[in-house]
Amino acid sequence: MGRAEKELSDNPMTEFSSSTKIAPNIGEYNEKDELYDPFEHRDKQHATSDLGSLAHLLKSSLGTGILAMPHAIKNGGLVFGGIGTIIIGFICAHCVHILVRTSHILCRRTKTPQMTYAETAYAAFLCGPKPLRRWANISKIFVNTALCATYVGGSCVYVVFVSRSLQQIVNYNIDKNLDIELFIYSLIPALVLLGQVRDLKYMVPFSALANIFMITGFSITLYYIFSNSNLHSFSNNKLFASVEQLPRFFATVIFAIEGIGVVMPVANNMKYPHHFLGCPSVLNITMTIVVSLYAMMGVFGFLAFGEDVQPSITLSLPTNEIPAQVVKGLIALAVLFTYGLQLFVPLEIMWNSIKHLFNHKFLALGETVMRICIVMLSVVFALLVPDLDPFISLVGAIFFSILGISIPATVETISCWESHLGTFNWRLWKNSVLIIFSLLALIFGSWISVQDIINLRSK
């Protein structure tokens, strides 16, 4: 086991390739392989309880995405947006379910204790129809690339969010109108330092502070929502949005709810892995809580602020009030402190894939330069798209729709192709619908987001 695996054995965010060895007869299916129980062969020395696993999933899901939900409801309407949020939450939960279940099946078939997301895709292709087996390595590379792109894209959103929050606070207090680019540049030293953290134990204090800041900020934000006079009068009666707004709604909600990158590490690290799926289960309880909170925050936030709601609801709070400034500052700091954790996974994936190119004398220098380059890449994208709304929609449409919906549906279909597609091949039809939905979100969401970016840049 390498350095990265040792450092991340307890980390629910781990998703790079592990040292798992796939059985050499992976392409040959045998019913006797089903007798193998992968759960009995896992190292449970540092396994987490059901409650701990639930906490990990909640922490990974209840992030900055929930702050964008009122703006998502604005693009969907109260009725369509509220119901649509629940439906998308169900779709995301189902995709998590089929990914983990497929991983468990492939673990039995290959006599492998556990698999990461990328290894699950690799094993599915290698166990699937013979014409697809040559694509196994490519599928593994594609999943790891999608994970890297998703987390780096999310880190760009973090940079824009923090800069926007600081811009509001500073501009109000100094009575000037400083450009957001100045605030993005000012974050570079902190971002570079956070990107250089290579041991998770050094992130623990920052994560603890981030959780405290986020909870405090959420609490004050809810106070502003439920004390708003518009909410009490229910003056906002926009039940449905226009058709051209719907791609923004879908892309934003997918970005907000989707957290599939942390699912496999959490499921693999459970003391009782079979409790992750089923009814009730860790997954079902977590997604019920998450979707309920997201729907309520979205609906009530939109009722409170209406058409004036900002891409992050904290930006809609009155800047001239001290509690609102405290909220913006606390949540901005919480997001900034989470930046290093957001980039931890893609940085490890990238370094593990290129470190063989370096002489051992220059490994430390090479990793340092690589980390600085990725941080600066997120800064460059933030400078190119310093507007939060289209950036969130674009990241959700491109990355989370592929990683959270298309890949799990494809992996399940391939792994079940020969004998487990169900009566009338219902799994094939169901997954085809999921892939079509994902592609529509990808195409139309990206198209609308790019148009918004172009229009904003031309002003």
Q: Report the order of strands and helices.
A: HHHHHHHHHHHHHHHH
Mind telling me which CATH architecture this is? Up-down Bundle
Q: How many distinct folded domains?
A: 1
Radius of gyration computed on alpha carbons: 22 Å
Q: How far is the N terminus from the C terminus?
A: 53 Å
Q: Helical stretch count? A: 16
Residue windows where pLDDT falls under 50 for at least 5 positions: 1-20, 23-29
CATH class: Mainly Alpha
Q: How many distinct beta strands?
A: 0
Gross morphology is globular
CATH superfamily: Amino acid/polyamine transporter I
What would you say this structure looks like, in words?
One of its GO terms (molecular function) is L-amino acid transmembrane transporter activity. It is found in: Membrane. This is Amino acid transporter transmembrane domain-containing protein. It comes from Atta cephalotes (Leafcutter ant). The protein has helices at residues 3-7, 50-61, 69-74, 78-110, 117-127, 136-174, 180-195, 204-226, 229-233, 246-257, 263-268, 282-305, 322-354, 363-384, 388-415, 426-458. The protein has 459 residues and is mainly alpha-helical. It has a single domain, classed as Amino acid/polyamine transporter I (Up-down Bundle), CATH 1.20.1740.10. Helix 6 packs across helix 7 (180-195) and helix 6 (136-174) runs antiparallel to helix 13 (322-354). The longest helix has 39 residues, at 136-174. It starts with a helix and ends with a helix. The relative contact order is 0.18. Mean pLDDT is 83; it is low at 1-20 and 23-29.
